[in-house]
Specification:
This protein is an alpha/beta fold. It is 49% helix and 13% strand.
Length: 1080
């Protein structure tokens, strides 16, 4: 598209900004004088030459690099080809063995492994055994998820290649439909021989249970055990499942089981980590280690804090209106002067700004003033605090940024987060920092408690604990840099078993949503009429439901696949390749189910095309159809022979055929270079050209039609959708429809292109404008790369900070492990008791000495000091003893107490058995490790927020975080032993048999001032009121959109524990004790 403009010089800035933000090859020629016109002509002449030079330079450079280094991916494949040959050789030899002899190979491999051979040595034979087992299963009926499936799979060579890559601890990128489920079987079997356990990690429960049932027919035939862990697996049964040789497990459950194992009090309670993490194959690894890795896994317990404010804030923000533009950010003095913006104040026309890219909402100055008026405060920051501003902005985000049926859905009165990449709900996970509560208040559902983090870990640091890690997916190469830098995983692209015939068309770009949907509807109607199965990809639930309503109006039968109907997923996908099938899917990434085409489908489609072409020609319209492969050309040719009742072998399409008043001919494309170039063009027109009224041109596609209604921010997700078509040499087509006001396009500056196009073209032209040039697709791809880089930065940022905590986490968990292991190991128990006796006595003496020193420095008398010490540590002094020593000096009392201290504990340690003493030490020590570690997690989160401000002082926040976190961790380790020693000093060791664990209680923060302000606020009326009878919401101190897994682990108090004024009243009213029954 070339546009000439003759405008003032100031418009040249518009051109510069336009090309910078959208980077489209739209050339705008601006004329000021004849000199500029000559310059423009000169530039127009040289530009093609410049492009040619750059292209030649790039081609030559790539050619030279390939000569020197060659294709690295191909080299990796060439290295394993000899192994494939060896596998097939052993496979042929195994034909003569019986089933029992094949199964006995497993024990043979185990013996050879114990005798010094490595897994690499066993690989060719082990893979051959798996292939032989698969061959012998052919024709067997398998029960999988309650359905009968006939086994018909024997691994191809490319599948064996993928298996070798997995065994080597790399990522195998294999296209959809290449049988990745079977690919994993051989490396799983080989690594399971050692008896150390293998985990196959899936993206959802369905795949974990399905693959475990399905592939178990191979494993059990070879003498191995198989387990599976999904969300519904009882905790009591999980250890049994993880004890199997092979365990298929849903990814988040695996992480949560790891965290749970590090909260238990005995080794016997552990399910996952009772043995080291050995080897894992991650299915759809990009979905799990890239998309899921934005948020860490967290196990939490409810906080005890007031919650009424969330309902107030949800009602309060109804009075606030959004600004019409984004927040102005200073571009610097020079830039402002050049743009005549310096000193110009931008008037705020709303109360808050929205940033769609970062999903944030920020109050404007006008909005702050309005809130101060509504809340009747002079200064909202001073009177309410920054924390309350944070909650108000959360309410704004819930109102304006987080959209129902896109970011979350409501199911059974509960807010369920929707994974933006897979379109699935994530039960058990919650937004943190009060955001989930804000959304619950907005939707009027029961508001649940906010939680305190008990244990947390990122996906990155969890999976890096495996001794060997590998993965498989259809789209990993686009994230190769991240896999390499964070996980140290290499991506190897495995060739397909058969070629790919799918036609991937350039994106179709339209002026606005209305125009886009008009064309989408036309495409769907035509190809549905031809009988082609259509998979319509949408970016969110709201769009999928809009498409569903659109199809209903056209009376097109269809299925919807999104977070609301995920339970029917397998059934819907299994029918997606049938004649005239239409499926509307919210993001097909990670679905894990192949779409197989119905038998005879393409023949039916060809017959419908031919009937349509003949019908159009008889209506005096010339029809031109483009065919994209030789096989499809043959289908059309045979359909013409059948429709016109011609003899087999008739020269249809090879020469012009005139029959029944129409002319039929075809022209082959001899210059075809790629799948998107037509193989041939068919012409069907009236014989009498003078009667021709119109022309119609269509692409004649076969197989599954992939129709994307919007481009995703990630290329992987678009590629996953494309990959659903064209499996195993099947024909297929994919195309994406894009409007300039789509979410992605807005981030690319699409609104500015819209404004410019609106000035240049009439409305009627815009409504019929369809842009399919490759530069649009390339531009969108570049923008996707930039957004992917931005998300990578977020994940890398999370990883960098969690890596600091990870070192501390490992040390704390190692300390816990040492204590737990001592329970079953007598030597370790004895060592622990002896070392902890010494550590306890040293720390206890230091506590007493510090107390005496402080008393001496402050002038406290020995008499008063003894009263304090007796109260704090239970010295059990008689009145006579007190009267005797109260007149001693501080130094004398110190020496006396140390001597008495040694004598007392020497005596009681002799009276108490080692086992009982271990139980006491272990219970108290573990209690304070867990308690202080939880507090430390909060401290580290607060520190992370604090150091973020240090960049303003030209300091690296990460460096400062590392420095201060080290100091905090040193303080944590000291506090653990100090608190443990302090508690043990208060115990009555003579009655120790009846008490082995400390009891704890927590009090909530007093926020009466804030609630008082809210109670007097002038709140706007809200249509939907909160229905939560408890009217309680609990704040979170987590950072980012964390995954929250709620556990029933509320601290218990002993029956005789005194209720403190700020504790929750035991009556269950939810009020503080001092405001309820304690007020009397």
């Amino acid at each position: 598209m070339r546009i000439k403009l003759y405008q003032s010089r100031k418009e040249e800035n518009v051109k510069f900004k336009l090309k910078k933000e959208f980077d489209l090859s739209i050339e705008i020629y601006i004329s000021f004088s004849w000199e500029n016109q000559i310059f423009g002509l000169f530039r127009k002449t040289l530009k093609p030459l410049y492009w040619c030079f750059n292209s030649f330079k790039r081609i030559m450079l790539n050619w030279i690099l390939n000569i020197i280094w060659g294709d690295y991916n191909q080299k990796q494949l060439d290295k394993i080809k000899p192994l494939i040959t060896a596998i097939n050789h052993f496979y042929a030899e195994l034909d003569s063995l019986s089933d029992e002899q094949i199964q006995a190979k497993t024990e043979e491999f185990r013996t050879r492994l114990q005798n010094g051979e490595s897994l690499d040595d066993l690989l060719p034979e082990a893979f051959a055994v798996v292939k032989q087992a698969c061959k012998r299963l052919v024709g067997t009926t398998c029960m999988v998820k309650g359905q009968e499936v006939v086994w018909n799979m024997i691994p191809y060579d490319v599948q064996l290649m993928g298996g070798i890559i997995l065994h080597q601890g790399k990522i195998a990128e294999m296209k959809t439909g290449e049988g990745k489920t079977l690919v994993a079987v051989a490396p799983v079997y080989l690594n399971a021989i050692s008896g150390k356990g293998v985990h196959v990690v899936t993206v959802n429960d369905y795949l974990a249970s399905r693959d475990a049932e399905w592939m178990a027919y191979v494993y059990r035939r070879l003498g191995l055990t198989v387990g599976s862990v999904v969300k519904s697996t009882p905790l009591a049964d999980r250890r049994n499942q993880y004890s199997a040789d092979i365990t298929y497990v849903e990814n988040s459950e695996l992480g949560f089981d790891y965290l749970r194992d590090n909260l238990v009090k005995t080794l016997g309670e552990r399910n996952l980590t009772w043995r080291p993490l050995n080897y894992a194959i991650v299915d759809e690894i990009d979905s799990i280690l890239i998309d899921e890795a934005r948020t860490p896994l967290i196990i939490s317990q409810p906080r005890e804090e007031p919650t009424e404010k969330y309902s107030f804030y949800a009602q309060l923000v109804q009075a606030l209106m959004p600004c019409s533009s984004k927040k102005k950010v200073s571009k610097g003095f020079i830039q402002e002067v050049l743009n005549d913006e310096y000193g110009v104040e931008h008037e705020e026309d709303g109360d808050y700004y929205i940033d769609e890219k970062t999903k944030t909402a920020q109050l404007s100055g006008k909005g702050i003033s309005k809130l101060e008026s509504l809340l009747k405060v002079e200064n909202i920051y001073k009177d309410m605090g920054y924390g309350e501003i944070h909650h108000i902005e959360n309410a704004l985000k819930a109102k304006a940024v987080y959209i129902k049926d896109k970011d979350y859905i409501i199911s059974n009165g509960e807010i369920l987060i929707v994974d933006e990449h897979t379109g699935r709900t994530m039960p058990g996970r919650r937004f943190s920092e009060g955001l989930h509560q804000a959304i619950e208040a907005k939707e009027g559902v029961q508001i649940q408690r906010e939680s305190q983090t008990m244990a947390t870990i990122t996906y990155q640091n969890f999976f890096k604990q495996y001794k060997k890690l590998s993965g498989m997916t259809g789209t990993a190469s686009t994230e190769g840099e991240e896999f390499s830098k964070i996980y140290e995983l290499e991506v190897v692209i495995i060739p397909t078993n058969r070629g790919i015939r799918r036609v991937d068309l350039n994106d179709k770009v339209y002026f606005d949503q209305k125009t886009k949907w008009k064309f989408v509807k036309e495409y769907i109607k035509f190809y549905h009429q031809m009988g082609q199965p259509i998979l319509i990809g949408t970016a969110d639930i709201a769009t999928s439901e809009y498409v569903s309503r659109l199809l209903e109006r056209e009376a097109i039968v269809h299925n919807v696949l999104n977070a609301k109907f995920h339970e029917q997923e397998a059934n819907i996908v299994s029918r997606a390749g049938k004649y005239k099938s239409v499926v509307v899917a919210t993001n097909m990434a990670g679905r894990g189910t192949d779409i197989k085409l119905e038998e005879g489908l393409n023949e039916k489609i060809a017959q419908n095309y031919v009937s349509y072409m003949l019908k159009v020609a008889k209506a005096w319209t010339q029809f031109t159809g483009k065919i994209y492969s030789e096989e499809e050309y043959s289908l059309i040719k045979n359909a013409f022979i059948h429709a016109l009742d011609l003899e087999e072998g008739a020269g249809v399409l090879t020469t012009e055929l005139q029959i029944n008043g129409v002319s039929i001919s075809a022209k082959l494309n001899t210059k075809r270079k790629q799948n998107t170039d037509p193989y041939a063009t068919v012409f069907v027109k009236p014989l009498d050209a003078s009667l021709q009224k119109d022309e119609e041109e269509k692409d004649l596609f076969f197989g599954l039609f992939i129709l994307g209604t919007e481009k995703h921010e990630s290329r992987r997700i678009d590629n996953q959708l494309r990959g659903r078509a064209g499996r195993q040499w099947d024909p297929g087509v994919s195309v994406f429809f894009v409007a300039l006001d789509d979410g992605l396009m807005r981030k690319m500056g699409g609104e500015k292109i819209q404004a410019l196009a609106g000035m240049l073209l009439s409305r009627s032209d815009l409504e019929n404008l369809e842009l399919t040039q490759s530069q649009f697709t390339k531009s969108i791809t570049r923008s996707q790369k930039e957004i992917e880089g931005w998300y990578f930065g977020i994940r890398k940022h999370l990883f960098d900070y969690d890596s600091v905590v990870d070192k501390q986490r490992k040390r704390v968990y190692k300390l816990r492990d040492d204590i737990l292991e001592a329970e079953t190991d007598e030597a370790k128990r004895k060592e622990y008791v002896e070392s902890f006796k010494e550590e306890f006595l040293t720390e206890a003496k230091n506590i007493v000495i510090t107390q005496i020193s402080n008393a001496e420095m402050t002038g406290q008398s020995v008499a008063d000091l003894l009263i304090v010490l007796n109260k704090e540590f239970g010295l059990n002094m008689t009145q006579a003893e007190y009267d005797q020593i109260k007149n001693l000096t501080h130094e004398e009392i110190k020496a006396l107490l140390m001597e008495r201290f040694d004598r007392y504990f020497a005596k009681v340690f002799e009276l108490i058995s080692e086992e009982l003493l271990f139980d006491v030490f272990r219970g108290v020590h573990l209690h304070f490790i867990d308690k202080l570690w939880v507090d430390h997690i909060d401290d580290m989160q607060n520190l992370r927020e604090k150091v973020g401000l240090m960049s303003y002082a030209q300091l690296d926040p990460l460096v400062m975080y590392k420095k201060e976190s080290f100091e905090k961790f040193q303080e944590l380790m000291k506090n653990i032993i100090n608190s443990t020693a302090g508690y043990l000093m208060r115990l009555d060791f003579e009655a120790i048999a009846g008490e082995a664990q400390a009891s704890t209680s927590f009090s909530e923060n007093d926020q009466e001032n804030v609630m008082g302000i809210l109670a007097g606020a002038d709140l706007p009326q809200q249509k939907t009121q909160n229905t939560d009878a408890r009217a309680k919401i609990f704040e979170s101190q987590d950072d980012g959109e964390f995954e929250i897994f709620e556990v029933d682990d509320t601290p218990k108090t002993s029956p005789d524990t005194k209720v403190r004024p700020n504790d929750a009243c035991p009556c269950g009213s939810g009020k503080k004790y001092k405001k309820c029954h304690g007020a009397n």
